[in-house]
Amino acid sequence: MAKPLLKIQRYFRRKPVRFFSFILLYLTAGSLVFLHSGFVGDSGPGARGGRNAVVASEMGSRPSVSGARGLGIMSRVFKETRRSGRRYGPPWMKKAKQEGQETVRRGGDYTNNWNRALKGRSAKDVDNGRAKYFGCYTDDTQKRALRGVSFYDYKKMTVFRCQDNCAERGYMYAGLEFGAECYCGHKIQAPNASDSECNMECKGEKSNLCGGANRLSIYRLELSQESARRYGSAIFKGCFNRPDNVTLALPFSAVIQNMSVDKCVDMCTEREKTLAVLAGDRCHCGFPTSLFSLHEPEDEGMCLNRCHGEEFESCGNDEYFVAYQTQVQDNRCMDRHFLPIRAKQLVALASFPGAGNTWARHLIELATGFYTGSYYFDGSLYNKGFKGERDHWRSGRTICIKTHESGKKEIESFDSSVLMIRNPYKALMAEFNRKYGGHIGFASQAHWKGKEWPEFVKNYAPWWASHTLDWLNFGKIVHVVHFENVKRGLFSQLKGMVQFLGLKVSEDRLLCVEGQKDGNFKRSGLRKLEYDPYTPEMRANINELIRTVDSALRKRNMSGVPEEYMPR
């Protein structure tokens, strides 16, 4: 027995051997402690039922985002994480979990669950002063809980961004799913689920939850004064003369007892039509078409006829119809593809930064059904559905190519161009916001009031003028479009752009684009500056640049810049 002990003693006398032996023992002990704590955590209350992962596979296409979701993603794995006692989100979530899961109701309209969803919750459940958390609800790819417009962003989705986009369009509800998807609607048409099932962090805001796998975190929105021409979430479109062929123009209709705007809008929404048209006690549903385009509104006094079900509403009559746009998404212009045959001619979509190039791409893609490309690569735009962003600009697979380049060599690389010009006062501010806040973000007050803004104007204002002049001088065939004119007369301006691109115009697609012209690329008006950032010296220099561009346009027998660019 003494000999083995003597051998061990001699072994540990060797300093290097002893050192490494102690390190090995230390690491082994640490590993055992770590593994032990992991098993204990899995069995505790924060382990979410002992599951380590939830696999959410897509069972077919998702209609509301069919144009943007085809990124080749066949399935997603959403890993759940163990959380500490602190739960991000509404403060009552933790209490609700301790009280147990709520009963799940099935079928019908669940909007009236308002009082039950807020039971036991305090006035602190207000998010940003514009929305209240409504609850966690189930969602189905075939039958959406919220059936208005939708969008997604797998990089920067936040609760506020989703709420803001839905509120700007007049919706009553905003819902987030999978941490990256946003759905809007005016009615919840699905059963509620346990709050613990809405457990995925927002992609752009780790401190908040954005739904779960087929689960929506829904917020009820406080609509702003901008919604004065809306009825709930339906948008008032005006009073219109009866179309020559009502059956063809508005294919579905029904007589409704005690007619009201709400009843007609609900009926057309259920039938997934974008237009709800009231004619006395009859409700018509359909889409904008050449037979009923909404381009020739009549005096609203012609439609004054009290609804039987609501004395303060007007329901039109047999000759003059009252039209509302429902929150159903018009899918007639959502399909987009690459060109079937590679184009031999390269068409530029040129603009100064901040002049609405991304918005123009959105309109062109919806109007033509083909993707647009880019001289650059912007991953954030690719993530938002611009698939042509990843193609090389010379690939020939896209209908036109975005570029902000100027200079003879770069311009002569293109065979023709659509040149979009915007009021420099607006364009400079938009680009400054993009530079310091992203495509739909905002620069901070520190940037506006610091040295960045004056330096930016000094460098970028001359570029606004030189960019336009270069394209007029070196461009082979140039079709000039003014941002402001597109906003005022989208149908005719977009029609001219489609014809310039050499494609046949589909009026139904253009009418579809009119109903969803903003896309997801419009900055909210909630953070407008409360003061004029331009100094008198800045204005004097910019006005001189405007006169130079105006003169160059007129010399080429083109219309000059719009009147609102500067005082005359």
TrEMBL record:
Supply the Pfam families for this chain.
WSC
Q: Keywords assigned by UniProt?
A: Membrane, Repeat, Transmembrane, Transmembrane helix
* Superkingdom, natural source: Eukaryota
- Bilayer-spanning residue ranges: 20-39
Q: Which residues form the WSC domain?
A: 130-222, 233-327
Family the entry assigns: Belongs to the WSCD family.
What name does the UniProt record give this protein? WSC domain-containing protein
Q: Which species is this UniProt entry from?
A: Zoarces viviparus
Species lineage = Eukaryota, Metazoa, Chordata, Craniata, Vertebrata
